[in-house]
Amino acid sequence: MKGKIALERGPIRYGVAALLLQVVLLGGLLAGCDGQPTPAPSPAPGATVADVAPLDAPRPAGPERLVLAFGDSLYAGYGLPRGQSLPDAIQMRLRRQGINATFVNAGVSGDTSADGRARLAFALDNLSRKPDLVMLGLGGNDALRQIAPAETRANLAAMLDMLAKRHIPVLLTGMKAPPNLGPDYGDAFDRIWPDLAAQYKTGLYPFILDGVIGEPKLIQGDHIHPDMAGVAVIADRLAPVVAGRLKGAEQGGG
């Protein structure tokens, strides 16, 4: 996203995206989301070294802004070459904009919100210092496993409570429920992220796969995880949001 965020909220786009997620679940293709190891795909024929090299940009001058990317396989870079994850892509974009950002990727494929809740304190305590921002991206595996939305909400709220007590700013990246789970489940699940963002006064990117899910050229063969082109699309949209949160944290001293 550049400047003001403009998200497509149409029910058809989200419905197709969520339906694809449910189809993959029913087909038993959730190797990445369930944490089962699978090799990263080989570069496509004709790919150059630059296509698969770790994303990087010269480190700008100025104080370092430390970001903890805490989530599941969508942060971890499931199925992608090393150095091509979403946090890598956002770090590169911020550095090219002159922001001295360093991302610590704490994405774990297969993690539910309960898994994240269990390991968040450990992740924070093992950083070199308190992060300037935590990107929190969990919940997709909860929906795929049909975990009650109330449980997902409680786990995310507990993590936000912990981060608030440590005075760490947060950017939530949200998820949408598959329509096959029914309108009651979908309504309860989809409301988690905007409700918590308002309650805890965090930043919010409503749907992390917006603009990518349902686009064959941007998604891996499992129909869930973005390929390198898909990561680039998400990073283009998300990097300005992260930059804004870092600027706000700096101005607020948090």
TrEMBL record:
InterPro entries (alphabetical): Ester_Hydrolysis_Enzymes (IPR051532), SGNH_hydro (IPR013830), SGNH_hydro_sf (IPR036514)
Protein name (record): Arylesterase
Domain called SGNH hydrolase-type esterase: residue spans: 69-231
Record organism: Sphingomonas oligophenolica
